[in-house]
Specification:
Layout (H helix, E strand, L loop, with lengths): L11 E4 L10 E3 L2 E3 L10 E8 L4 E9 L4 H8 L2 E4 L4 E5 L2 E2 L6 E7 L2 E2 L14 E8 L15 H4 L9 E5 L4 H13 L4 E3 L7 H6 L1 E5 L3 H8 L8 E4 L2 E4 L4 E11 L13 E7 L1 H13 L7 E5 L1
Helix pairs in contact: 3-6
Length: 301
């Protein structure tokens, strides 16, 4: 676990009027993958420091790659450490609180890191987020959307896995728009029917489900294990408090299908689901980059 005030909210809420509506050889849909690709060649990385699941950004600085995450953080912020320097317990005067279970966590390209900050060496293009938030064993997000689409374009530790987008046929246009956006951002991505996913693809690819698909339904059934704030129940979006909502959501997690475990820092899954008209808006928000929390909800209470 990369641990490195109570949070006002864990969710990104965007109000819309109700009237608005490693890996083996893989061959599929014209793509041939023998191994994950490298990220685009960029010289620098980004360090972000934020609070409460990304809701408040304290700083965002460009740093040189080739150094450790810890050294990069020390170059742009005042840092306190414990356990011989291996654990970050304070950034710019905000400290861990064991009684309230508030700590600093760091994510690399949206993926919760599985090594200490002194051990991860920055690659060009990495986006590293240090976020201060509450945690329990029942509330541990291992992937976040505030830095979308970096998990699909930059991966983790210099390794980028191929991405498959599956979709409900009624949402083909949104799925295609998402595919083109990711491809233009440098991801290796294709569209595919969810019923045709192979076991190797499930294990070793990033997979995004747009709308109600068989794969999305399977992910939805795991929402508690994935620590997601939203899920679908009886065809309607439900939040963590059990409130039914009109809208759509997007959530991400490290893949539960990866044989190396859900903290392997390899491939991720993402679910975009809810009312079709709001899913289209949800995709638009994702592509706008205007995300200020680890999870995204678009809709009305």
């Amino acid at each position: 676990m990369a641990l490195n005030v109570e949070k006002p909210s864990k969710f990104e809420m965007i109000a819309i009027p109700v009237i608005c509506v490693v890996i083996g050889a893989l061959v599929y849909s014209g793509f041939y993958f023998q191994s994950p690709s490298s990220p685009q060649n960029k010289n620098n990385a980004i360090i972000i420091v934020s609070l409460y699941y990304g809701e408040e950004t304290l700083l965002k600085k460009e740093v040189k790659s080739g150094q450790s995450v810890l050294d990069a953080l020390k170059a742009v912020a005042n840092v306190s450490t414990s356990y011989g320097g291996a654990f970050v317990n304070g950034i710019n005067g905000i400290y861990s609180d064991s009684q309230k279970k508030m700590d600093w966590f760091y994510y690399v390209n949206g993926i919760l890191a599985n090594v200490g900050a002194a051990s991860y060496i920055l690659n060009g293009g990495d986006v590293v987020r240090w976020d201060y938030h509450h945690w329990t064993s029942f509330d541990m997000l291992n992937a976040e959307l505030a830095d979308f689409p970096s998990m699909f374009t930059n991966g983790y530790s210099g390794t980028v896995y191929p991405t498959i987008i599956i979709y409900n046929q009624s949402l083909y246009d949104s799925a295609l728009e998402l595919k083109n956006y990711l491809a233009n951002s440098g991801a290796k991505v294709t569209l595919k029917n969810s019923s045709a996913l192979t076991s190797e693809e499930l294990k070793y690819c990033n997979i995004i489900s747009v709308g109600t698909t068989s794969f999305g339904t399977a992910l939805n059934s795991m929402w508690r294990d994935l620590h997601w704030a939203y899920h679908i129940e009886n065809g309607t979006v439900v939040n963590a408090n059990g409130t039914f909502l009109k809208g759509a959501f997007a959530e991400a997690a490290q893949s539960p299908y990866n044989p190396n475990g859900t903290y392997a820092c390899q491939n991720v899954v993402m679910l975009i689901d809810g009312d079709d008209s709001y899913i289209k808006n949800c995709v638009s928000v994702l592509l706008s980059g205007n995300i200020t929390s680890f999870e995204l909800f678009v809709g009305v209470e």
